[in-house]
Amino acid sequence: MEYIMETRNLVKSYKNKTVVDAVNIHVKKGEIYGFVGPNGAGKSTVMKMMLNLTNPDSGEVSIFGKKIGDKSYECLKRIGSLIETPCFYEKITGRQNLELHCEYMGFHNRERIGEAMQLAGLNNIDGKSVSHYSMGMKQRLAIARAILTKPELLVLDEPINALDPEGIREMRTLFRHINQEYGTTIFISSHILSEVEQIADTVGIIQGGKLLKEISMSDIRKCQTDYIELEVDDMERTGYVLEQELGLSDFKVITDKKAEIYDSDKSVKEISAVLVQNGIGLISIGVKQNSLEDYFFHIIGEV
Amino acid sequence: MMHLMKLELKKIHLLQYIFISFIAIIFSMFFICVALNDVSNHADTFENTFRVVQMIFAFIYVIFFSVLVSAMVISEYNNKTILLMFTYPVDRKKMMLSKLMVITIFMAVSMLIGYVCCSLFIIWTDYQFDWIYGDFSVGVLKNWISAALSSIIVFCCLGLWTFVAGMAKKSVAVTIVSSIIFICLRQIVITAGERNQENVWMVLGAVIISLAALQYTFTKKIMQID
């Protein structure tokens, strides 16, 4: 399998503390790779090493089939990125920042600046210096800058931070659009698992500097089991009824009103009928599916 | 390199620094005027008056140099824009060199204009009020030109030292404070000599130290962004 980006046994330590430990990441061309992990897991450090911003203690990064070294600048022309917080030259306008970006990237299609700003949802901001932008606007401008040159690879570190729900949805649509329209490979880190779940083709889970799992979303979905979630007014009696009347043993009481039934023998219809017959107030009942969040905590919990 | 330097100029409000440079020249002239007009002082020579200008320039321009280093280099690290800069397909040492070239050229030109303005001012005040002992001659002008050029080189070197000091800790405070220390160091070194100004060896020494320190910083410190 040929990968557009690959890391081999990447190790990085700061002050004798290993923050990235033998990380092997494989990003296929044209996919959206979701890189998830708790704060301080080492996501940003891995991404900095990918972009040659930090040298690894050992291991290597290959991008576009070439090993990244001290002098690997040329490949950066084909990469758009957003690392950590969005940074700009605050005294100049957003457009001037993007013009500067084009100059450094050697990209001469200035009409694309307007397009990128529009795609990122930045309208009517001409003449305003970046210092007057809200955090959400800066985030949008950073995304506009990252996609401006139509890069082959986008490396985005927490790109939806500081965005409102509408902004998050817009960015999700945008990432899908540039992935499908331009074939851009996207490597995206986020702690908002529900968002990653919606756009990623492959997910890498990192914790304590170690890559715990690298798995495609389709494989995760295969592992995801359906279960019945019910909300009742009397959990004590419900537990008794589920065990004695329905003969269920594989269920979990979540709170004093909520339970999850993993036994697939009984249908929602049967369970609700028995509960009602026994005088239990049924507030809600329905079939649910494990999310990426459940999978994430399952993987993390295994360690 | 020229292209990178032009891009550096786009990031800063150059006009604001030109204005500061203009104010510095006015301040220097004012200081010279006050010093020459001091009735408690005996009439001074052209050579001594020029040394006063050099001393004022040492304080103004080396500190000004460190301010520019802080604004154009150190702040890139503090504001994390250096992370962005280093994602560009440009040699990072060239990128840093372009910044230093912009600062050094700007400062050298500012000092040159400053020296021309202050020299003309000294000549004019002497012509008007006869405050200076002796007559102005071509010999005096020659001495002034060589002293001005040596001091411009030394002040730029001291400015570059502030870059080296600032990059060690990526700190604006260290950059500015180091400029004051280097000015004091310069004063101590030149007062140890007979002429109270830089000689060829001092200029050469400052250049060699600067090159060595820059080499170290470029190799060890530029890529330290964590």
> Percent helix among the residues of chain B?
over 70%
Biggest sheet, spatial arrangement of strands of chain A: 7-8-9-4-10-11
Q: Could you give a short account of the major beta sheet of chain B?
A: none
H and E string of chain B:
HHHHHHHH
The CATH superfamily name of the largest domain in chain A is: P-loop containing nucleotide triphosphate hydrolases
SS-derived structural category of chain A: alpha/beta
- Name the chain pair whose interface involves the most residues: A-B, 30 and 22 residues
CATH architectural type of the largest domain in chain A: 3-Layer(aba) Sandwich
Structural Rg of chain A: 24 Å
Strand content of chain B: under 5%
Element-level helix/strand string of chain A: EEEEHEEEHHHEHEHEEHEHEEHEH
Give average pLDDT of chain A, whole number: 83
End-to-end separation of chain A in angstroms reads 29 Å
How many helices of chain B? 8
Number of domains of chain B: 1
Number of strands of chain A: 15
- Cα shape of chain A: elongated
Low-confidence stretches of chain A: none
Shape of chain B: elongated
Give the assembly state of these chains.
heterodimer
Overall description:
The complex is a heterodimer of chains A (303) and B (226). Chain A is an alpha/beta fold and 303 residues long. Chain A folds into two domains: 3-216, Rossmann fold (3-Layer(aba) Sandwich), CATH 3.40.50; 224-290, Alpha-Beta Plaits. Chain A is built from ten helices and 15 strands. Chain A has helices spanning 43-50, 94-105, 111-119, 135-147, 165-181, 193-199, 217-223, 235-245, 268-277, 292-302; strands at residues 3-14, 17-23, 26-28, 32-36, 58-63, 66-67, 79-82, 153-157, 185-189, 202-207, 210-216, 226-232, 251-253, 258-261, 282-289. The longest helix of chain A is centred in the middle third of the chain and has 17 residues, at 165-181. Chain A is elongated, with a radius of gyration of 24 Å. The two termini of chain A are 29 Å apart. Chain B starts with a helix and ends in a 6-residue tail after the last helix. Chain B is mainly alpha-helical and 226 residues long. Chain B is 81% helix and 0% strand. Chain B has one domain (2-37, 44-220). Chain B contains eight helices and no strands. Chain B has helices at 2-11, 14-37, 46-78, 81-85, 92-129, 138-169, 172-192, 200-220. The A-B interface holds A 14, 48, 51-55, 71, 73-77, 79, 81, 83-85, 87-92, 96, 100, 103-106 and B 3, 7, 10-13, 79-81, 83-92, 223, 225-226.
